[in-house]
Amino acid sequence: MAITEHIEKVKEGLREGKFTSEAAVSQGILLPALHELGWPVFDTSVIIPEFSVGGRRVDYALCHPENQPSVFIEVKKVGLSGGADRQLFEYAFHLGVPMAILTDGQEWSFYLPGEQGRYDERRVYKLDLLERDISEAKNRLERYLSYSNVCLGTALKAARSDYQNVARVRIIETNFPKTWEALLKDQDSLLLDLLAEKVEDLCGYKPDLDVCSHFLEKQAQNNEHLKKYRPERIPSVRKTRTSTLGSDNIRTPAVDNFTLVFKGKEFSARSAREVMTKLFQLLSQEDSGFFERFASRKHGKKRRYLARDKLDLYPGRVDLAEQHSVEVVSGWWLGTNYSRKNIQDIINLAIEVAGSQLRDTIKANVL
């Protein structure tokens, strides 16, 4: 099987939430990739698992010559690689290993620990298998990680050249408008929270997340800076201190349209959150492994949509965990502090993880 076929297989598995642990990422993604890139994966003098470094261990050391590490690889569970770069850098610094890779199977970060700057500034490239096309993923993996390139030293030379290439700065600058547009369209829940809290700081009223979502949609449509926006239609606001708000400032929202059909049976719901919660309960009843697979998927940038501990839903925000979480079934908590658009995205992700047999039997809409 060629590396392109392996990447396609991995992408499919990631979408379905099949890689539920670090061991699954190692055995199902990393080691087969190394095999396709020419590494002798069964030779433990070339690929050393659990390599000892100063009393601690790095997951894999890729060696050339034998038993002399050229690349360190640290593996994490899908979506949980954040913050692991510090540990990886300490390992690499200890032995002077020139290249380090941190991966959760979906995201691959290639680092040059010996360069200057913060950890993130020494990252040569970040590859997201679900965001990049297969040809780009293939080229990057071969460029930095093929056995022949590592042995010849061309992988390290390529990484250093890419790191120093001033074109990278120009690419970043030209992508700022596109990135801002993507932020407006994707409406990550953290962005919505920041917007809502800042509005409350400025005027004393905290808008619902759906109001913030409506605002960002307007910005995406008009492609204007936030300061140019003039509120025209605000569905609802939550009052947080005594004040007067004229009726002209409020527009009655459109009639709610919440739809949930599961295996031919229609369920009633009064809110988007009820649709999401009921769907997760139904999927759990139908498939005992659904929650584990869903939890293994990458969720928000800093949040988990579903977790065994509700504090994991909103890291660092105990208030949100207490106020905006529901125990969807015993031992599993679901976050609810999301706009309708965010909830629809979570629902779509759940349907994707459910697999093809159930996918066609589900209709869930909250927009």
Summarize the structure.
Helices cover 45% and strands 18% of the residues.
How is the secondary structure organized here?
Elements: H1 3-15, H2 22-36, E1 47-53, E2 56-63, E3 69-75, H3 85-95, E4 99-103, E5 107-111, E6 123-128, H4 134-145, H5 147-152, H6 154-164, H7 167-186, H8 189-203, E7 205-207, H9 209-222, E8 237-239, E9 259-262, E10 265-267, H10 272-286, H11 290-296, E11 306-307, H12 318-323, E12 325-329, E13 332-335, H13 340-354, H14 356-359, E14 362-365
Helix pairs in contact: 1-2, 1-4, 4-6, 7-9, 10-13
Describe this structure in words.
The protein folds into three domains: 3-165, tt1808, chain A (Alpha-Beta Complex); 184-249, no CATH class; 259-365, Up-down Bundle (Replication modulator SeqA, C-terminal DNA-binding domain), CATH 1.20.1380. The protein is an alpha+beta fold. It has a six-stranded mixed β-sheet, with helices on both faces. A three-stranded antiparallel β-sheet has the order 10-9-14. A three-stranded antiparallel β-sheet has the order 11-13-12. The protein is 45% helix and 18% strand. Mean pLDDT is 86; it is low at 225-255.
Keywords:
367 residues, alpha+beta, tt1808, chain A, Replication modulator SeqA, C-terminal DNA-binding domain, 14 helices, 14 strands
H-E order: HHEEEHEEEHHHHHEHEEEHHEHEEHHE
Distance between the termini: 42 Å
CATH-level-2 architecture of the largest domain: Alpha-Beta Complex
**Which spans of ≥5 residues are poorly predicted at pLDDT below 50?**
225-255
List the domain count as a whole number.
3
Q: Outline the biggest β-sheet.
A: 6 strands, mixed
CATH class of the largest domain: Alpha Beta
| Spatial order of strands in the largest sheet | 1-2-3-4-5-6
Q: What is the beta-strand fraction?
A: 15-25%
Helix content: 40-55%
Radius of gyration: 23 Å
Structural class designation:
alpha+beta
Number of strands: 14
Overall 3D form: globular
Classify the fold: give the CATH topology of the largest domain: tt1808, chain A
Number of helices: 14
Mean pLDDT across residues? 86
